[in-house]
Specification:
Layout (H helix, E strand, L loop, with lengths): L10 E9 L3 E8 L22 E9 L2 E10 L4 E4 L2 E4 L2 E2 L2 E5 L13 H13 L4 E3 L7 H10 L2 E5 L5 H4 L13 H15 L5 E5 L8 H13 L4 E2 L10 E4 L3 H8 L15 H4 L8 E6 L10 H10 L3 E6 L47 H8 L3 E6 L4 E6 L6 E12 L2 E12 L4 E5 L10 E8 L14 E6 L24 E3 L12 E3 L6 H5 L2 H4 L10 E7 L5 E7 L7 E2 L1 E9 L3 E10 L12 E7 L17 E11 L4 E15 L3 H6 L11 E10 L18 E2 L5 E9 L1
Parallel strand pairs: 8-9, 8-15, 9-10, 10-11, 11-12, 13-14, 14-15
Antiparallel strand pairs: 1-2, 1-3, 3-4, 5-6, 6-7, 16-17, 17-20, 18-19, 18-21, 21-22, 23-25, 24-28, 25-26, 26-35, 27-34, 28-33, 29-30, 29-31, 31-32, 32-33, 32-35
Helix pairs in contact: 1-2, 4-5, 6-8
């Protein structure tokens, strides 16, 4: 659309379009005509293949050039059919993330380099979509989304959360507010509708329901045909949507029997969503709240989504934390609610992102990247064949290098590479490239390197990383499996007191709690377990002395109905800060992992400096655990070495400060080494959760309910 002001006499408009393959096409017409260029064929734009057509518009009077405008455009198709969103003819599921505009030093004033960093990291985490929560973004952001390839859910700046959430209040049915609503919708669409990356429109966020949105949806459709989403009033939208539904609710929705409720149990009015079951596709405009040590049970979301065609994915909350760096602040200090003398405030509730305010990733980012990776692998032990499947809809994988390693007991038994090509949605299989050893624990470790990497991708970043067990995969759940490497000790054991270890500051102590996470606090776990001590539970610690200076520890926990729940079951050691030199372990790593967040942590042998194993969350909380450990070795500063093994897989946490320090520090920068290393060996620890941070508990299979827990944690300490 071209709009002129003033005298149009003698004006002409030249429209020039450059195509990727056929060169330039141009037309010049009088200003009172609409310029149209007919192209022989077009390549469709997608987030996987962001094909753009440069366009130049020249306004002249005679031979005098009055104005020149440049922009890029693209072509897409969309259709909603059979409860699916078809984009360019293919059923699209959004691997999306919510993104606020935020810079830790500049606030809402972003730099182009900062936006490029965001888009590169978002794409590298295997996201293909972004929601402009909760307002139109910097115009440069849309240009980057066009160029690099992200589907945009573009949102009008309409929100009245505290007043109108699940209510018809403001703007509601009040005509006094209609002009404001319509103005914001119209400006959103007219400013951004020429961006090919804009895939869906949103009428706003958590502003309730009413005639304002009924009429606002009509206005939007008169301006642009792209589909509409609005979670607070699905009745006027083209999609159904819901904030923070757990995976079990998605199953119910797909089956047509889900009960609508708000985040705090609000029952919606019939005007909001209409009668069910719905005939629309469904997206989660917000889900998997990534606050602090979170992003648990993320695989469960995508296992559910991929089972049901009507589920079109969603937008994780959220990309970055909103901490601010005050002038003169210590490195790593991010201020949040209350740090500016602001009352009332929401504390650190603005710190709920996959990356910190300075874009340093939180551990949950690796989990999300792994779950969303576009290539899946399987191993058929009976047929001795490996298979790969591409989940791309439009992009082919051509001549990618598949690096393979066959691991036996954590060591490479064989390795090599081969070339792989896959069309969109295609699978391929091939004979295992090496014989599997007859004994030992074996895994295939596959890394697919894209030889035709897009220009946004960091060189050398794998397209996909896979770990495929040769035997049965380890079960998901809070209780450990058997250690395949464990060999029972020989010889008699005898009762003994606790061992003396280099640098040990105090006798080992039973521990059943952990420093509270944001999700623990949000679901009330800290209040349910407040004041509980090991002596309040039926738990016992026994030591036995073995041959060659070995020790055996046995922690026994007896199921009991009057002690409802614990956070972990383990033993704590405190060492002097200079006594530990290095840690080696065979288990899941190299990053922090928990029983419900372990997809990105592969079983292998890892070594690390003791102080490097902690995670500096913006608000200090439980962190740093490594799970499914087969063997842990600690090398002391004096050269001695201690190996820990157990009949069951176990976990360990090692930090240069105490759990008590975690409980009292309000910011990561305040959490300084306190002269100790705290090592906790645990039989099990509850998951971290991830559905939301204000009510949903950790999923049942990842909780330690005392009424159901009858366990013995048996491990050996082997000095060398």
């Amino acid at each position: 659309e071209i709009v002129y002001g003033g005298d149009t006499a003698g004006l002409t408009v030249e429209l020039r379009v450059r195509t990727p393959r056929d060169g330039d096409f141009a037309v010049t017409v009088p200003a009172d005509e609409i310029p149209e260029v007919a192209l022989p064929a077009v390549e469709l734009w997608s987030a996987e293949l962001p094909v753009l057509y440069p366009v130049r518009v020249i306004l002249k009077r005679g031979e005098t050039v009055l104005d020149v405008r440049h922009y890029r455009t693209g072509f897409t198709t969309f259709e909603i059919r059979d409860r699916q969103f078809l984009f360019n003819g293919k059923p699209l599921r959004f691997h999306g993330v919510n993104r606020h505009e935020h810079d830790p030093r500049r606030g809402r004033a972003l730099t182009l380099d900062g936006m490029k960093t965001d888009i590169r990291m978002i794409k590298e985490a295997n996201f293909d979509a972004v929601r402009s929560s909760h307002y139109p973004n910097d115009p440069r952001w849309y240009e980057l989304c066009d160029l690099y390839g992200l589907y945009v859910l573009d949102e009008a700046n309409i929100e009245s959360h505290g007043l109108s959430y699940h209510a018809c209040v403001l703007p509601g049915d009040d005509p006094a507010w209609f002009p404001s609503v319509f103005d914001r919708i119209e400006r959103l669409v007219k400013v951004n509708r020429n961006h090919v990356s804009v895939t869906l429109w949103s009428l706003g966020n958590e502003a309730g329901y009413g005639d304002a949105f009924t009429e606002g949806a009509k206005l939007l459709r008169s301006l642009d045909p792209r589909p509409i989403q609005y979670a607070d009033m699905n009745a006027v939208a083209d999609f159904d949507s819901q904030t923070y539904p757990p995976p079990a609710w998605l199953e119910e929705y797909a089956g047509g029997n889900a009960e609508r409720k708000g985040e705090h149990g609000e029952i919606p009015h019939l005007r909001q969503h209409g009668a069910g079951p719905s005939s629309k596709p469904f997206i989660m405009n917000e889900y998997a709240h990534a606050m602090g040590n979170s992003t648990g049970n993320f695989p469960e979301y995508w296992e559910t989504i991929e089972k049901h065609p009507c589920l079109a994915g969603g937008f994780l909350w959220e990309w970055c934390e909103h901490g601010l760096i005050p002038a003169g602040a210590e490195p790593g200090f991010f201020a949040y609610g209350g740090d500016f003398g602001d009352v009332p405030n929401n504390g650190n509730f603005c710190c709920d992102g996959l990356v910190r305010a300075d874009r340093i990733p939180n551990p949950g980012l690796a989990e999300v990247r792994q779950v969303q990776q576009p290539v899946r692998g399987t191993f058929d032990r009976a047929a001795n064949r490996l298979s790969l499947t591409s989940r791309f809809l439009f992009r082919s994988i051509r001549g990618a290098e598949l690096l393979w390693v066959l691991l036996r007991n954590g060591e490479a038994a064989a390795s090599g590479s081969l070339r792989v090509s896959l069309a969109p949605g295609e699978s391929c299989s091939f004979d295992a490239p090496a014989p599997i050893p007859a004994d030992g624990e074996c895994f295939w470790r596959l890394t697919l390197l894209d030889s035709n990497a897009p220009h946004w991708r960091t060189p050398g970043l794998p397209l996909a990383e896979l770990e495929l067990p040769v035997g049965e995969p380890e079960k998901r759940g809070v209780l450990p499996g058997a250690n395949p490497l464990y060999h029972a000790p020989s010889g008699a054991f005898h009762a003994a007191s606790a061992p003396e270890l280099p640098g040990l500051l105090e006798p080992p102590a039973i521990v059943l709690d952990r420093a509270v996470t944001d999700n623990d606090r949000g679901c009330g776990f800290d209040r349910r377990t407040a004041g509980r001590r090991p002596e309040d539970c039926a738990v016992r610690l026994d030591w036995e002395a073995g041959t060659a200076g070995t020790f055996r520890a046995r922690l026994s926990f007896l199921a009991q109905p009057d002690c409802p729940e614990i956070a972990r079951f383990g033993l704590r050691f405190r060492f002097g800060s200079g006594s530990l030199a290095e840690v080696e372990y065979y288990g899941r790593g190299p990053g922090e992992n928990y029983c419900d967040r372990r997809s990105a942590a592969f079983v292998g042998r890892y070594a690390a400096a003791p102080e490097s194993l902690a995670t500096a969350y913006t608000r200090p909380q439980e962190n740093g655990r490594r799970g499914d450990v087969r063997e842990l070795a600690i090398r002391f500063a004096d050269g001695r070495r201690l190996t820990v093994v157990s009949p069951e897989l176990f976990g360990f946490t090692l930090r240069p400060y105490s759990s008590a320090a975690l409980e009292t520090a309000a910011h990561a920068a305040e959490l300084l080494p306190d002269g100790t290393f705290e090592l906790i060996l645990d039989y099990a620890q509850r998951g971290v959760g991830g559905d939301d941070s204000w009510g949903c508990d950790v999923h049942a299979e990842y909780r330690l309910l005392c009424s159901e827990l009858s366990a013995v944690f048996d491990f050996q300490l082997i000095p060398e």
